[in-house]
Amino acid sequence: MPIKYVGRTTDFKGKTLWEIVGNLKNFGVGRIVVRSTFERYPEPSYLKICKVEALANEDPRKVRVWAEKVFRGRKYPKIVEVCSASYKPDYRLIPKDEEEAYCKRESLGALEKINILPQTIPFPPLLREFILADRHAKGEDVTKEPEMEMVYNDSRDGLSRKAREGEEPNVKFEPGIGTPKSPELYANVQRG
Amino acid sequence: MLRSINAIGCNFKYLGLQVASDLKINPICVHCVRWKRKPRWLPVAKSKIYRIPERPKIPENERIELKRLHDRYNTHMRAVRKYFAQEFRDSSATSLAALQETKDEEEKHLLCMKENEEWNKQVALLREQRLIKLKEARHESILAKKVAFEERQKERLEKAEQLVREEKERAKFYITADNIDRAIEEAMASPVDHNYAIDLEGHMYRGRKTKPSDVPPDELEKIKVQGQVS
């Protein structure tokens, strides 16, 4: 009988971690598991299972797994514990004969480069005018361009960081909407 | 809008009210609820219970572009927020500038207090002098009053003594229990008649039973009228 899905669709694809690990010899220690969500990146992202601890059969069934994590071709220095996300039906087991080929997909080196983000950028035009007017009213130096200090959220994988003092950022700030990632969307836009 | 007002009117009609006549609703004052939905606490409608909303299909290039724009916007807004927060902190009561300001104000206040104290001292000196003068003047006036009072008292005493002396003098002629008989006898012996008559010219005729012919014409005395100079 063909399976008919009812309800909202999901982006997840695969099984829960317990469904995979519970059926394997020695709980699949040494095997490679992939989260389907991360397969959208060109670089390989996978978990190499080191240790498994079974948990009580509750709904949703979870399992505590320690694994070597590789995300977008970069290996994490420490072993990672996966437990709270283990119930998600989004894991896929890599067959043993494909393991080597899967892990060898080299990252293109793009991620080796860390994005250094600018420390300060110019103020938005109207705010800049207000600040200059304010300085003028206080009798301060108006010729100096006011600079807005930036705040960045720390990226978990350390792929980008704020420029240090005197460092040249390699990501430039462009005024307006910046450089589009999909320029074809703006093909018919006429700029006055 | 008019339709919705009609709908409200219908609802009121169920309650047995005539909207226009009973409640006098001014159509201009009615606030329209344009998007009327079911109350939040009601369960899913029967007709919608198995409805599955279709997932929006966003093209990949559009998705990444929108994500980039949103990220950019959020980063910029965070920076602007930080700037305003910093500015607020700088201008708030606990900032360095504000603390310096309060310190300056305190110093100024101390200076003012010092000057004020000096003024107070000067004024106190003046006041002391004035008060001494006033005191002296008052002392003198009180002394003068005292002297005058004593003099008056002396005079009064003198008068009273004078009175007493006169009375003592007169006491010799008082009628007492000892000499009352003699006094009565004397009085009886010399009756006094205060009656008199006057004629048209104002001549007095003393005595109750005296006749005009009894008095010789050269002994006639004239009556004295008060306030009239004869």
UniProtKB/TrEMBL annotation, chain A:
Pfam families: MRP-S34
Signal peptide per UniProt: none
Top-rank taxon, per record: Eukaryota
Gene Ontology CC annotation, any one: mitochondrion
Region (Disordered): 146-192
Residue ranges with Basic and acidic residues bias: 154-171
Residue ranges the record marks as coiled coil: none
GO MF annotation terms: structural constituent of ribosome
InterPro entries: Ribosomal_mS34
Protein name: 28S ribosomal protein S34, mitochondrial
Organism ancestry: Eukaryota, Metazoa, Ecdysozoa, Arthropoda, Hexapoda
From TrEMBL, chain B:
A single Gene Ontology CC term: mitochondrial small ribosomal subunit
Segments for region (Disordered): 207-230
Keywords: Coiled coil, Mitochondrion, Ribonucleoprotein, Ribosomal protein, Transit peptide
Primary residence: mitochondrion
Matching Pfam families: MRP-S26
InterPro entries: Ribosomal_mS26
Superkingdom of this protein's organism: Eukaryota
Compartment list: Mitochondrion
Coiled coil: 147-177
Family: Belongs to the mitochondrion-specific ribosomal protein mS26 family.
Annotated protein name in UniProt: Small ribosomal subunit protein mS26
